[in-house]
Fold Cell division ATP-binding protein FtsE.
Amino acid sequence: MTDHLHISIQHLNKYYTGQNSHEKMHALKDIHLNIKKGSICGIIGRSGAGKSSLLRTLNGLESMSSGEVYVLEHALSELSHAQLIQLRQRIGMIFQHFNLLSTKTVWENIALPLKVAGYSADKIKQQVEKLMTLVGLESKAQHYPSQLSGGQKQRVGIARALIHNPEILLCDEATSALDPESTQTILQLLQQINQTLGITIVLITHEMQVIKQICHEVVVIDAGEIIEQGQVWQVFSSPQHQITQDLLQRNIPHFHSALSTTRAAQHRYHALSIQYAHAKNQLFDIQTLLRPFPSAVLLHSQVDQIQQHHVGQLLIAYPIQPSTPQITQQNSLSSLHIKEHGYVESII
Ligand SMILES: Nc1ncnc2c1ncn2[C@@H]1O[C@H](COP(=O)(O)OP(=O)(O)OP(=O)(O)O)[C@@H](O)[C@H]1O
Ligand SMILES: [Mg+2]
């Protein structure tokens, strides 16, 4: 494994054995994945896709059935139990439901891993104070988890996960239990941790919004398989797999309502979605792109800034013509993805 990779997963398979030991559930199927040092990699998929199983194999919480996982240059299958415990100190983890001890204060929750590891009181105080400042919880040291908001509880979870100065942080649905505002602040904190401390972050989520906001790379898994992966701006502007497209369109509430008339009897319009991306410093002319559709009606338009790109999504309806108009790729575009969505009867 080259040293710019923090994680390398090769031919990983994971089976769970059911009640009946003859029944095997193939939860992870021949997974290959490299995660670069200092990157934020998002793993997305529907419920039951295998996200948590995959994340948990990275710190040995879940065993693998075959294949190999290299983490920080260690082959996990070759480690003794003691070596695995040692490696885990270099891999922090945070959870959807925070996993805090309710009978301990914020200070004690964060300090616990160091106490267990037998550090001196001075060292513990120094490290806990540093982390409470990092996550912005200085004023809550003596509070109990029940006295905190969800976002504050997750800050405690993050501080505790960073207590051993890890090189990797694993996040299992870290913002799924939070309201939109707390989600924003936690995502910003994770981004700050990545940028200032250089920690590699692997996060799993079922929300494309989370991926869009802070990830560099995205991996889409379904039924235990990687079905798509790439840089975030690329996957958002040119999703190849139907499941990725569905996950993305869930982001746009009115996308489906705009198409709700597609089942009508009398077809007069075609609906077309156009996804495109161009580098921020490239000028792009939407008029030129839509020139083949002089009578098009714009049903939806959205432009997001993702990494160094503008990623746009258009939904248009155009009158049915004898021959389908052709959209031509413009030089300034980094990607262009066009999809027919059937017919629209009337446009309000
Ligand atoms: N300990 C277990 N024993 C048996 N089957 C399991 C076990 N853990 C998970 N599974 C099965 O493996 C599959 C993947 O589960 P996993 O928890 O990794 O999915 P997930 O993508 O994290 O889902 P969610 O989004 O709901 O958290 C599921 O079908 C699940 O039922
Ligand atoms: Mg899960």
About this structure: The domain at 5-232 is CATH 3.40.50.300 (Rossmann fold). The chain has two domains: 5-232, 252-344.
